[in-house]
Amino acid sequence: MSLINRRQFTAGLLAGGAAMTALPRRASADGSMVFLTDWKAQAEHGGFYAAKALDLYRKHGLDLELRQGGPSQNTQQLMAAGAVDLALGSSNFFLLNMIQVGATVKAVAAFFQKDAAVLMVHPDSGINSVADMAGHPIYVSPGGVVSNYLFMKAKLGFTDEQLRPYNFNLAPFLADNTSIQQGLLSSEPFTAKKEGGVDTKVFLLADSGYSTYANLILASHKTLAERKDQVQAFVNASIEGWNEYLYGNPEAANALIKQDNPEMTDELLAYSRSKMLEYGIVDSGDSLQLGLGAMTDARWKDFYDVMVTAKVYPSDLDYKSAFVTDFVNKGFGLDQKAALTRK
Fold first, then answer.
1. Which residues contact 187 (CB under 8 A, 6 or more apart)?
2. Alpha helices of 202-333 — where are they, by DSSP H?
């Protein structure tokens, strides 16, 4: 899955502001919930699929429908209409953009402590750090231009003069060993190696101060008011699922992922899972002490302050209305992780 596929798509949805199409409200019995992911099934959803495959949601009292996202699924519309109870948001940008247009949603957990956005370069480029990238052409998707490239300009010294359009095709990057390619950790480096034979150097933006969370669980104000216990049950079951996917056996989850998304391959699933572990995408920083899904006001404020400086958001936007930490930061799942890693 490429950066442009998921993030340009979600950015386009939010560009439409608050306009929404009325959809029928989904009737549900107690314990029944619908969770919508942000794209087609993949390893980045592995913990949720593990929780489903291993009946962890049912263990926590939920009858959960795990629905994969994609180009036909508009998260903002579906949540506003009550057609889904919970959904996956790609980053802090996604939440703050929704808040800015008046959407009544909050993030209740962040299952990626690090955003998976990367910059990759050729091994013979002479580029050994982000600081070495000044002046080099960089291929960026339209979605990236209005999201993480804003951070790159505000904090890392990149300029608009460096920008080159990235339109799903790595050929221009592969042909120019002085260039830089923006992408996702689990996608563009894999494709460059498999299709172009180039073993790229990879720089994770999160390791250069890009402090957004990712894989955020979104809940409407209505859901939070009326189904708080079920939201907690979902978060806890998902924490257990992510522990199983990362530190246990991912096979049951991967089988369910491939069932939903037949285009997914075992090779890409294994690669993506290994990179999430290697780079601490799911489990690093605060989650090591607070448990998976952790969020803090300090992280949200850091991201917001940088984006205010970059003139992306007004200084009076109530960024705190975008999230609530009531469901995380309790150390839940740490004992399970310890037991799995001892095996």
1. 1, 2, 3
2. 221-226, 228-247, 251-260, 266-278, 287-290, 297-309
Give me the helices (H) in the chain, please. 3, 9-15, 46-53, 56-59, 75-80, 92-100, 142-145, 148-156, 171-175, 188-196, 221-226, 228-247, 251-260, 266-278, 287-290, 297-309, 334-342
* CATH class name, domain 14-113+213-342: alpha beta
Residue 130's Cα: distance from chain center in Å? 22
Domain boundaries, the chain: 14-113+213-342, 117-208
Q: Which residues pair with 112 in a beta bridge?
A: 214
pLDDT digits (tens, 9 = 90+) for 153-172: 999 999 999 999 998 899 99
CA dist 283 and 153 (Å) reads 27
> pTM of the entire structure?
0.92
Asked whether the domain spanning 117-208 has the same topology as the one spanning 14-113+213-342, the reply is yes
Residues 6+ apart with CB under 8 A from 49: 41, 66, 241, 245, 253, 254, 256, 257
| Secondary structure class of 148 (helix, strand, coil) | helix
Cβ–Cβ under 8 Å, residues 222 and 82:
yes
Cβ–Cβ under 8 Å, residues 245 and 50 = yes
CATH classification code of 117-208:
3.40.190.10
The tens digit of pLDDT for each residue in 300-312 reads 999 999 999 999 9
Contact predicate 292/327, CB 8 Å: no
Residue with tokens 């750090």: 129
Which amino acid, one-letter code, is at 322? A
Q: Which residue has the tokens 């619908």?
A: 34
Q: Would you give the end-to-end CA distance of the chain in angstroms?
A: 32
Q: Compute how many other C-beta atoms are within 10 angstroms of the C-beta atom of residue 25.
A: 9
